[in-house]
Design brief:
Layout lengths: L3 E7 L3 E7 L5 E8 L11 E2 L1 H19 L6 E8 L5 E4 L9 E2 L7 H8 L8 H4 L8 H11 L1 H9 L2 E4 L1 H9 L9 E3 H4 L5 E2 L4 E2 L1 H7 L8 E3 L2 E6 L11 E7 H8 L8 E5 L3 E8 L10 E6 L7 E8 L3 H9 L9 H6 L9 E3 L17 E3 L7 H27 L6 E4 L6 H11 L3 E4 L4 H13 L6 H7 L2 E5 L7 H14 L7
Parallel strand pairs: 1-5, 5-14, 9-12, 15-21, 21-22
Antiparallel strand pairs: 1-2, 2-3, 4-7, 6-8, 10-11, 13-14, 15-16, 16-18, 17-18, 19-20, 22-23
Helix pairs in contact: 4-5, 9-14, 10-12, 12-13, 13-16
Length: 501
């Protein structure tokens, strides 16, 4: 009997394979980074073939570490960086262009042109999304308009589009030899091409963007069998590929946020807070996204409100790679602890504009409040604090939209092991911050979706029982982080507005 479920977590900076047992415990993990390609300011690309090669390598690595064969696995789940667009030839399997990454802003003129008719909320009623550079449908439009080979292939019916989940599932299940061209509702909801109510592609929006429907994958639930791995593939056997969730929705499932009003925040390259709103979409009046949370098989879809922050952990990487202030991301906490406060500086990392709750593509990053007193420690502290302040802005918007007062925040992702950040986050929010025992909830959520489809887990109650509290940070009642410091942050944010002309 198969005792494990595998999850492939294809993220912005790396790809990992994790293998879980029935208790939701990781038994093996293998992870590899891939190249970040910056052809021009504001442009961010990945090589899809490199990512597919990395995926095969991390699968083989995890299987070897766990000493498992394909017969030991009940299913495979996929979770992925969302809104990153890949277009490839269905006959050769070769991409026509590098993947255009979610934070890429090259399509800003496309957004402006589309907004001339109906404004920024032109498609919000149907899709839950404002017109913004973020969403993959608008990236596809840019590629079709600017790469003649892609337009010709699309018109001829030879081109396939997908977010990273679609690209991986297609390759895992056969590629040019009958690979499944599918996506799930959570990923489809991030293209700006899917109708929230019908969970199907909206032909009117696709026509407005000039995107042939033939390019688009079939929309499936988040938990069903899409196809099977190949005997000569990285798993070395026939295993159901049965779970598919965008990374933030996967983390929500991994955190067992199955009831309306439950929320989680993931601290990764960006920062993403999701609030489960139940079986009906809730329109946002405060700059949040209305999105799919998950859909398990034939069950009714579950919706969510999401606050998306473009730059969180990526700011630490910028401090490391661009400014050379630290040698590793882990050093930022030690450097920040060399000072008692931020020295009066505020770092607003609007590198790709501002996402929730502002949605300003023309914003750019600022460091406000500089004096001769400021040193490297203050830079490090302001870097960490930026993530906490941005999260507070999203939480305030969620309170306003939902009427729900959050009593605690479940957190996950790589940055939650930064003790200084987590304490400051609790201080800024004024509520406890809770890290689970298994902090890699994104991969766990993908495993849950896949395992549920094949009966490895029977229901969400079993998954909820697996969730365990790791550590809690209580807000410091004497801190002024939620008052004076946050007020100054809001002031600093206004300095980023309207920078790009």
């Amino acid at each position: 009997m198969s005792q494990f479920v595998a999850a492939i977590d294809q993220g912005t900076t790396s790809t990992r394979c994790m293998i879980f047992n029935h208790s939701g415990e990781s038994v093996a993990i293998h992870q590899m980074e891939h190249e970040q390609i910056y052809p021009k300011p504001g442009w961010v690309e990945h090589d899809p073939l490199e990512i597919w090669a990395r995926t095969q390598a991390v699968v083989q690595g995890a299987m070897q570490k766990a000493c498992l064969t394909a017969s030991d696995l009940a299913a495979v789940g996929i979770t992925n960086q969302r809104e990153t667009a890949v277009i490839w030839n269905k006959h050769t399997g070769k991409p026509y262009h590098n993947a255009v990454v979610w934070m890429d802003t090259r399509n800003d003129k496309v957004v402006a042109e589309m907004a001339k008719e109906g404004g920024q909320d032109r498609f919000r009623a149907q899709t839950g999304l404002p017109l913004a550079t973020y969403f993959s449908g608008l990236k596809v439009k840019w590629l079709l308009d600017n790469v003649p080979e892609i337009r010709a292939a699309a018109d001829a019916g030879d081109a396939l589009f997908g977010n990273m989940d679609t690209w991986l599932i297609w390759n895992l299940t056969g590629g040019v030899n009958g690979g499944a061209h599918v996506t799930d509702v959570t990923n489809a909801s991030r293209t700006m091409l899917m109708n929230l109510d019908t969970l199907s592609w909206n032909p009117d929006i696709a026509t407005a963007m000039g995107i042939p429907l033939s390019m688009l994958p079939a929309i499936k639930s988040s938990s069903e069998i899409y196809g099977y791995t190949l005997a000569d593939g990285p798993f070395g056997g026939r295993i159901p590929v049965a779970g598919d969730l965008g990374d933030q929705q996967a983390a929500t499932v991994g955190q067992a946020c199955f009831s309306p009003g439950e929320a989680k925040n993931t601290y990764g390259t960006g920062c993403f807070m999701i609030l489960n709103t139940g079986n009906k979409p809730v329109p946002s009046e405060n700059g949040l996204l209305t999105t799919l949370c998950y859909k398990f098989g034939e069950e009714t879809a579950v919706y969510a409100l999401e606050g998306s922050i473009a730059i969180a952990g990526a700011l630490v990487q910028w401090l490391r790679d661009n400014l050379k202030m630290i040698d590793s991301a882990a050093e930022v906490e030690e450097l920040a602890q060399t000072v008692k406060d931020n020295g009066g500086i505020y770092f607003v990392p609007a590198f790709s504009g501002l996402y929730a709750p502002y949605w300003k593509d023309d914003a750019r990053g600022v460091i406000a409040g500089l004096t001769r007193y400021v040193n490297r420690g203050h830079f490090a502290r302001a870097t960490l604090e930026a993530t906490a302040y941005q999260t507070r802005e999203v939480l305030d918007a969620m309170r306003a939209d939902s009427g729900v007062e959050l009593t605690a925040l479940k957190v996950d992702g790589g940055m939650v092991f930064n003790e200084l950040l987590m304490q400051f986050q609790a201080d800024v929010l004024g509520v406890p911050v809770i890290r689970p025992k298994v902090a890699e909830t994104t991969a766990l959520g993908a495993a849950y979706a896949a395992g549920l489809a094949v009966g490895f887990w029977q229901n969400t109650d079993e998954m909820r029982q697996n969730w365990g509290m790791g550590k809690t940070w209580q807000p410091d009642k004497d801190s002024n982080a939620s008052t004076d410091l946050f007020r100054m942050w809001k002031k600093a944010v206004t300095r980023t507005f309207d920078w790009v002309e």
